[in-house]
Structures are given as C-alpha cells and as structure tokens.
Design brief:
Elements lengths: L2 E5 L2 E4 L4 E8 L7 E7 L6 E7 L5 E3 L7 E6 L4 E6 L8 E8 L13 E2 L3 E6 L1
Parallel strand pairs: 2-11
Antiparallel strand pairs: 1-3, 3-8, 4-5, 4-9, 5-6, 7-8, 9-10, 9-11
Length: about 120
C-alpha cells in the first residue's frame, strides 16, 4: 500500500508560478509510475502529466505543455509539479496518483493510488 499526500496549492494571480509536492510513503514506488490529474468544479477529472518513476519518461497534456514541468526526488520519494505562466483555466483541485505498473499512462482508471488533492486557484 502506498500513501500519497499533496501540498503546495494556493491562490495566485494569472501569470504567476506555483510548485506542488506529492510525498509517497508506505513502500517503494521505484518500479511504478506516477502522475498529476486535476478536477475543476462541475467537470470530470482530467490528465495533466505522467512520469515513469525510475526511467523518467514523461507525457504532458497539450493544455500544459511548455508551462508545467514534472520532476521527482528519488531519495525523498517526492513528486513535484512546477507550474508557470498560470491561467485562470488552471484553477482546479490537483491530485497526485500512482500505479504499480512501470508504464506511465494518461488513463485515470489505470492508477491504483490517489492523494487527497490540493486546491489551486488562479485569479485574473
């Protein structure tokens, strides 16, 4: 069992930056994959970015390419999401997710573990 805890959300103005963190504990995740998803009020949860924990292979949603960057600390077992040039449409609850399989994926149903979410609000 893997526990995921997100932090770093908050209120920022359009054009600003924010970095989210996701701490993994309970067992090693070195052989799996992780990702970030987000859900705005009244909308379905959507894919943001995913990464293979050990290999570093990444896939980004078109809506965040060039603005967001995913990274991880292999020692501390922390996943990061650096968000730059934030837009009001980025406003959502951001969720960290993990899967036992090593292959990264954009499919929500393929993930086994989820964090509680952290709120990101971008004002115009």
């Amino acid at each position: 069992q893997v526990q995921l805890v997100e932090s770093g959300g908050g209120l920022v103005q359009a054009g600003g930056s924010l970095r989210l963190s996701c701490v993994a504990s309970g067992r090693t995740i070195d052989n799996g994959a992780m990702g970030w998803f987000r859900q705005a009020p009244g909308k379905e949860r959507e894919f943001v970015v995913t990464i293979s924990w050990s290999g570093g292979t990444t896939y980004y949603a078109d809506s965040v390419k060039g603005r967001f960057a995913i990274s991880r600390d292999n020692v501390k077992k922390i996943l990061y999401l650096q968000m730059n040039s934030l837009k009001p449409e980025d406003t959502a609850v951001y969720y960290c997710a993990g899967r036992r399989n090593v292959e990264p994926t954009a499919k929500l149903s393929e993930y086994d573990y989820w964090g509680q979410g952290t709120q990101v609000t971008v004002s115009s």
